[in-house]
Amino acid sequence: MTDNSFTFKLNDAQSESVISELNKDVYEKIEVPYTQIAAKAEKCTICLYSSGKLLIQGKGALDWINFTLEPQILKQVVTGYDDILQPDMIKPHIGIDESGKGDFFGPMVIAAVYVNESFVLQLRDAGVKDSKSISSDKRILEIASEILRIVGDRHIVINLKPPAFNRLYRKMKNINRVLAWGHARALEDLLVKVPECPRAVADKFGPENRIKQALMQRGRNIELVQRTKAEDDPAVAAASILARAEFVRAMQKGSDYFGFEIPKGVSTKVKEAAERVIKEHGPEMLPRCAKINFKTTDEVLALAGFSRDDLPEETD
User: Fold this and answer.
1) Single pTM value for the model
2) Domain 4-85, what fold?
3) What is the DSSP letter of 264?
């Protein structure tokens, strides 16, 4: 195996042993941000971060693990490393993801996050993973705060509120085109902050060239990788959490405004809430708070005694 990267979470005693080992003359000390110590060994680099994460990478990584780390420091053979990072995951890149696409109420939110090696390790320590695997809104908001602390302003969140979403959908007539437009805008906006970033990763949806076609001049030269299950990439996972956090906040604002719960998704409760919105505020309110491309729109309008003809052509 070549160009491998392996990470381990060490306790204090193990960290002290690594420091003692890397202070030996056989190692070449190097400067790496946020590390307690970092050094080069034969065909590999070893970095011990302040969090206790130990990163070993390079062609000689497995040899150092097998002959130094396991027998001398861990005092055990590790049969399954707790975390194996693919090299591309720790190289500088941007991840893009969205939230709210499948929800009748609320905005569609697209987020983009830039990461480098240091950010990736900190994000994993903070528990960053695909937002769909985090069921608690409270936890989403907590992790989102940690992401912002780690990456600072190297992120973009685009909130396509229902009126803006509905206008775009009316023009593009396809949800994946709207999604591609949002991904492209988020990527373009973040490249203003990190213009030298060489690569971006996004989940695959529709034709692969759709995002590329939507990019303007600034993003035309970036390598864009679109693949299924992109959320296992730490940058994409971070973007998914920031997008979800913004969506959660928007839904709470909607509930506060109407004085009753505005549910997520598309369910019986959602239809009941939509019917109530129409009865209390009129059909013209629906495009202001919901994505009217859903067939749910026709259903709830009919239940309230209206049709699409009663909806305004444009909303602010």
Assistant:
1) 0.74
2) TATA-Binding Protein (3.30.310)
3) S
Domain boundaries, the chain: 4-85, 90-253, 257-310
By C-alpha distance, which of 84, 91, 65 is closest to 76? 65
**What residues contact residue 314 under an 8 Å CB cut-off, 6+ apart?**
167
- 69 φ/ψ sector (left φ>0, alpha ψ -120 to 50, else beta): alpha
How many helical (H) and strand (E) elements, i.e. helices and strands, does the chain have?
A: 12, 11
Overall size of the chain counted in residues: 316
Quote the tokens at residue 192.
């203003």
pLDDT tens-digit series, residues 5-60: 788 888 899 999 999 999 999 999 999 999 999 999 988 999 999 999 999 998 88
Q: CA-CA distance, 159 to 189, in Å (whole number)?
A: 13
Cα angle value 147/152/157 (rounded, 5°): 70
- Cα separation, 247 vs 101, whole angstroms: 10
Looking at the structure, give the CATH architecture of the domain made up of residues 90-253: 2-Layer Sandwich (3.30)
- List beta partners, residue 39: 29, 46
pLDDT digits (tens, 9 = 90+) for 259-268: 999 999 999 9
CA 210 remoteness from chain centre = 20
- Helix H segments across the chain? 12-22, 61-64, 87-90, 117-125, 137-151, 162-172, 175-193, 209-214, 234-258, 268-281, 286-289, 296-303
